[in-house]
Amino acid sequence: MKFLKKLCETDGISGREDAVAELLKEELKEYADEIRTDAMKNVIALKKGTAGNNRKKIMLAGHIDEIGFLIYNINKEGFASISPVGGWSAGSIAGHTVKVYTCKGEVLRGVVCAKAALTPEEAAKAPDLNSLFIDFGMDGDTVKEKVQRGDWVAMDSPYQELGDCLVAKAFDDRVGVYIITEAFRKYRNPNIDVYCVGTAQEEVGIRGATVAAQSVRPDIGIAADITVAGDTPGFPAERKVTDLGKGVAIKQQDSSVICSTSLVDFMRTIAEEKGIDYQMEILVRGGTDTSAMQKFGGDTYATCLSVPTRNGHSPVAIIHKHDVETAIKLLTEFLNRAHLFQG
Question: Which end of the chain, C or N, has fewer beta carbons within 10 A?
Fold first, then answer.
C-alpha cells in the first residue's frame, strides 16, 4: 500500500488539490490511453476497450480533496483564527499540529488551540470551531510578515500502521483514490471503456464529480469512499452502519442518493460468487460522488464501495487493511464482468 501512504502524506484541501492531482496523474499514466486535468482539477484517465463499437462507459470516482482550513484573521499577538473547509468537529482537532501553506511559498507549522475554559461551565462544553486558533510560536509581527488571510491549512498527521489497521489524516478520500487506481491497474476486460477519475471539491458540495459526470456521461458510475464504522463503545447497536475488518461495504443508500438496486444486487452477487467479505451500507447522514454520477451522468446506474472508518473527518482516522483489500478485489471483479450488467 505504498501509493496509499504517498496519497495520505500529500496535502490537498478542497480547492488546493494540485499536488495530489499531479501525484495521481503520474501513477495512472502507465495504464491510461488518455489522461487530462480539467478546470476543476479533476484528474480524468481513460483506458479504452478494444472489442466492439458500443462499449459501456464505466466511471470510477474517488475524491482527491481533504478537509482543512483557511487562515481567516491574525491578531496583533500573532494568533490566527481559521475558517473550515469541509465538515469538522472542533473537539477532534484542538491540540493537533497543522501545516500552513502560505502564498509566499513557505510551509509553516502551528498548533490548533482552543479558547481557555475559565469556569466549570465553560470546561463542561465542547469547543466550537469559532473558538479555535493557530499558535505559530512566533511574535505577531513575524507571523503577519509570513502569513496572510486565505493561506491554507492541512493537518500534520503521520500515516502509520496500528495492528491490522492504518491511521492517517486523509483516508477521506485518499483510500478511495487508492482503491480505484488499483482496480484500474488490475482489471482486464476489452469490452468496456473505463474512466478513472480523481474528483475535486467533494468535501464542499460534490462539485468536481458533478462536472466530471457531465463530461464523461457514464453508463455505470462507481464511487469509492469511506463510511461510518459503528463498532466502538457508546455507539448505539441499533444504529450501527458497519464494522472494521468485516469487508468492503456496498452502499444501498445515504442522505444524497438511493443507489441503483440492480447494480447493488450485481455487486452483491459477485462478492458472494467470489467469496469476498462484504457488508451492506445504509448511511443516514452524508453523501458521496455517487449522487453526482447518478444525477448528472445522463442515464447512469450508480453505487459506492465504502471502507468502514473510525474517527472519520479527524487527524487520526482508522481503517482496516482487509476492508481496503476486499474493496479492490470486488471493484476489479466487477470491472472484469461489467459488460454483462443489463440494468
Answer: C
Determine the average pLDDT of the residues in 36-64. Answer: 95
C-alpha dihedral sign at 297, 301, 305, 306: positive
* Catalytic residue status for 202: yes
* Average pLDDT value for residue range 78-84: 96
pTM of the shown model: 0.95
Could you say which of 202, 203, 281, 333 is catalytic? 202
3.40.630.10, 3.90.550.10, 3.40.50.2300, 3.30.1330.60: which CATH number matches 2-66+169-340? Answer: 3.40.630.10
Question: Using only C-alpha atoms, what is the Rg of the chain?
Answer: 21
CA distance 234 to 240: 11
CATH number of 68-155: 2.40.30.40
The neighbouring-strand residues paired with 81 are 73, 133
Say what the pLDDT of residue 123 is.
65
